[in-house]
Amino acid sequence: MSLLEAKHITKGYDGRTIIQDISIHLETGELISLLGLSGSGKTTLFQVLSGLTRPEEGEVFLDGREITGKPGAVSYMLQKDLLLPHKKVIDNVSLPLVLKGMKKKDAREVADRFFAEFGLDGYQDKYPDRMSGGMRQRAAFLRTYLSTMVQTDDVPGLDTAALAGADPGGAGRNPAAHGAALLDEPFSALDTITKGQLHTWYLEMMQRIRLSTIFITHDIDEAILLSDRIYLMTGRPGVIDHEIRILPPREQRKEFNLTQAFLAYKKQIIQILGTAESA
Q: What is the location of CATH 3.40.50.300 in the chain?
């Protein structure tokens, strides 16, 4: 059983179909990318997966439980970090816990345990405008991760006891934290050097905290370097007509972008997208 699965999703607005009959799946520990032409409906698909909008057809399942149209079950991080400028970093990242009913003091204590692991220790009481772009993204990632720790049953509530025992080291972590995150072009606003550093950091974090990820990107190199699988989305309405599995495994891809295998993947993707654009 897949961690996150969408079956035959069709969604439109104002009488126009945006995405049609899309089925994708995310396995535990996987990072998959959604790569495609602008206007093919990638963000619309994310809105359906996150429960922010309900499709005309199809269903979404998280760990076997239907979550179609139920926001909060899957974390969703937009392209911009969207940190609130008037709140300290500790209050920004703990916001999902507070919104779910945890007391501010308790939410801060839970969030604070993860600052060192996310490379943010010492920034708890700073404001976002005192942070670099890379550090702001780390804070946004931590906020997204904490939102996966919130229980999202049909009856709203928060397992405060489990969260109180959350362990950044892994042994005692709340099982709810092993969730799915949707990232919409999370690295696009960063310079090349910072982006590379964040790539390495995020892959290490995913492994340590066992977070599974789907991310949208327009960067072919980024998709090949980071992904276990790539879904190619084309057309209007948008469809997924190609799935590419990237080998070798992510942990064996040091200097992979210098290899012939990398160039072969890139050529294949460019050809598919180019054909779709001219069709």
A: 1-74+219-279, 76-178
Question: How large is the average pLDDT for residues 132-160?
Answer: 70
Cα 9 from Cα 243, distance rounded (Å): 17
Q: What is the CATH number of domain 1-74+219-279?
A: 3.40.50.300
> What does the pLDDT read at residue 2?
92
Q: Tokens 């919409």 appear where? A: 184
How far is residue 88's CA from residue 249's CA, in Å, rounded to a whole number? 38
CA distance 266 to 257: 10
| DSSP H helical ranges for the chain | 42-49, 89-93, 95-99, 104-112, 133-148, 160-164, 192-209, 220-226, 260-278
Q: Which amino acid is at 266?
A: K
What pLDDT shows up at residue 175? Answer: 39
Which residues make beta-bridge pairs with 7?
59
Could you tell me whether strands 180-184 and 212-217 are parallel, antiparallel, or unpaired per DSSP bridges? parallel
Q: Are 1 and 26 in contact (CB under 8 A)?
A: no
CATH C-level class of 76-178: alpha beta
For residue 218, give both structure tokens.
Answer: 């327009």
Bridge-based pairing state of the strands 229-234 and 31-36: parallel
DSSP 8-class letter at 52: S
Q: In angstroms, rounded to a whole number, what is the distance separating the alpha carbons of residues 54 and 52? A: 7
pLDDT given for residue 134 in this prediction? 86
Residue 250: what are its φ and ψ, rounded to 5°? -55, -40
pLDDT of residue 93: 95
Is residue 37 within 8 A of residue 276, CB to CB? The reply is yes
Phi, psi (degrees; rounded to nearest 5) at 50: -80, -10
* 75 dihedral zone (left: phi>0; alpha: psi -120 to 50; beta): beta
